[in-house]
Specification:
The complex is a heterodimer of chains A (396) and B (128). Chain A has 396 residues and is α+β, with helices and mostly antiparallel strands. Chain A is 41% helix and 23% strand. Chain A has three domains: 118 residues, Beta-Lactamase; 93 residues, Helix Hairpins; 159 residues, Histidine kinase-like ATPase, C-terminal domain (Heat Shock Protein 90). Chain B has one domain: Response regulator (Rossmann fold, 3-Layer(aba) Sandwich), CATH 3.40.50. Chain B contains five helices and five strands. The chains are: A alpha+beta (396), B alpha/beta (128).
């Protein structure tokens, strides 16, 4: 070899041919002063079998804060924190017994130490070099301070997000509890009065208390919807996909609304096709959607009927169950249909003499439908009725 | 003298909600007593005068969970039905409450029409 490993590049002496050769050889390109090694972005340190530094590149000087003259001929441990010297000597011995190209200290935190004593985290890859002069080990050393700091920032950020998510869950749980507590007394004592437990009521008192009771229930359903939406948006809504008896859910929903429909003189009917008995879905969400749609249908229908029909279909090549809740009610104007599934949309139902018509019910239904992998859509003719269609995949 | 043969103890730190439960129970013929904290509720329960105990969960001092723990580890009380009467209604709350040793759970806001019947459903027919 024409260069002196002991003195390094700068003190290479007359035999060191890289600078003087007009046409560099492959050899020059790899290790000369204008070479890949000298200008590599990593610090490159070559040591001999006894652990003495024989060669360093420009980045080594920058990274460790030494001139190369201060390093050449010194034990490589000069670049390593004192507390790690013992381990390093052992590691070197082990590497010498099995020299091959590999990263150093896999799974270990590695550190370098600068001339001024400051430590920094490093990543090192090792390559054995066998020459006529003996065996050497080249290490490419990369300062990972920034990457480590970045990783730490990510970890901190993750922890913060987890904390925030937990705090939000806690807040929602508390809000739910705190809103329900006074509603209990409102709904409860309105109920005792309407049950006439304390004594008789005149007609007007009864009518007004009925409004209080209805409004309190409305408020409760809003609170429930808000909490459900919050859970859906934070991914905390638990979905249990299992075999659900669709026909059973439909008949339960109809039964729970039979009295309401009968009070308004409406016919409430259900029809479930034979092959639509079961679906793999989340029972609670399916039930919640159907309850909401049925309740709306009854609410916005003055006379005629509300029907729940279930039949099979294929959607996008998959077997589906189509649940359709249709009514002969007021219908929805074409311009209102698009925003029907938005949150807190206002619609003009003044002709019904009802003071609601804003809310979250359908918005929640559409969110739930998405979680089920289902589609919820509406067709309606203003003045003639509406039909809400839930297209539910049979299998998940 | 109670129409149904079981005295009911209600424990709730919220005065309005305690009054509501007591009012409904008495209106339907039950003899009912109220306590507004877990410690005095537990003490009253230990008198052995009650066929069923309803308790709020979120209370200062001894909360419903702690009360359930002491209640169900008390040989004299463990067979008395203990029912949570709580505004905790989020997913998982019901399971948590039953796992804590409660025999049942009634969620607030209660349905005033069905409340007493629901309490009755937790009473064993043989209870003194």
């Amino acid at each position: 070899m024409p260069f002196d490993l002991r003195s390094g590049f700068r003190n290479a002496g007359p035999n060191f041919t890289i600078v003087s050769q007009p046409k560099p050889t492959l050899h020059d390109i790899v290790i000369g002063q204008a070479s890949l090694v000298e200008h590599a972005p990593d610090a490159i340190v070559i040591i001999d079998e006894s652990g003495v530094i024989r060669l360093v590149n420009a980045q080594t000087e920058r990274l460790f804060g030494y001139y190369r003259e201060e390093l050449i001929g010194r034990p490589v441990e000069i670049l390593i924190p004192t507390r790690l010297h013992r381990r390093h000597v052992e590691d070197r011995r082990r590497y010498a017994a099995d020299p091959r190209v590999r990263p150093m200290g896999v799974g270990l935190e590695l550190f370098g130490t600068r001339k001024d004593g400051r430590e920094f985290p490093v990543e090192i890859s090792l390559s054995p070099i066998v020459t006529g002069e003996g065996k050497f080990v080249a290490s490419a050393i990369r300062d990972v301070t920034e990457r480590k700091a970045f990783e730490q920032r990510l970890r901190d950020l993750n922890a913060e997000l987890e904390d925030a998510s937990r705090a939000k869950d806690q807040f929602l749980a508390s809000m739910s509890h705190e809103l329900r507590t006074p509603l209990n007394a409102i709904i409860g004592f309105t109920g005792t009065l309407l049950m006439k437990l304390p004594g008789p009521l005149n007609d007007e008192q009864e009518r007004q208390l009925g409004i209080v009771a209805w409004s309190a229930r409305h408020l409760l359903s809003l609170i429930n919807d808000i909490l459900d939406l919050a859970k859906i948006h934070s991914g905390k809504r638990e979905m249990v996909f299992e075999t659900v008896p669709v026909a059973q859910v439909v008949s339960d929903v109809a039964a729970s609304h039979a009295a309401l429909a009968a009070d308004k003189g409406l016919e409430l009917t259900t029809q479930v096709a034979e092959d639509c008995e079961f679906a793999t879905t989340d029972r609670r969400s399916l039930r919640q959607i159907l309850l909401n749609l049925t309740n709306n249908a009854i609410k916005y229908t003055q006379k005629g009927s509300v029907r729940i029909d279930v039949h099979g279909a294929r959607r996008n090549g998959r077997s589906a169950i189509v649940l359709r809740v249709s009514d002969t009610g007021v219908g929805i104007k074409p311009e209102d249909q698009a925003r029907l599934f938005g949150a807190f949309e206002q619609f003009d139902f003044s002709h019904l003499g009802q003071f609601d018509g804003s809310g979250l019910g359908l918005h929640l239904c559409r969110n739930l439908a998405e979680l089920l992998g289902a589609e919820l859509s509406v067709t309606s003719k203003y003045g003639e009725g509406s039909a809400f269609t839930l297209t539910l995949p049979r299998e998940r | 003298m109670t129409r149904h043969g079981a005295r009911v103890l209600v424990i709730d730190d919220n005065a309005a909600n305690l009054e509501l439960a007591l009012y409904l129970l008495r209106a339907f013929g039950y003899e009912a007593e109220g306590r507004s904290d877990g410690a005095s509720g537990l003490e009253a329960a230990r008198s052995g005068r009650f066929g069923i105990v309803l308790t709020d969960i979120l209370m200062p001092g001894i909360d419903g969970y702690e009360l359930a723990r002491r209640f169900k580890s008390d040989a004299g009380l463990s067979s008395t039905p203990l029912v949570a009467l709580t505004a905790f209604a989020m997913g998982g709350d019901h399971e948590r409450i039953i796992a804590a040793g409660f025999d049942g759970c009634i969620t607030k806001p209660i349905d005033p029409h069905g409340f007493v019947a629901e309490v009755e459903s937790y009473l064993q027919p043989t209870s003194a």
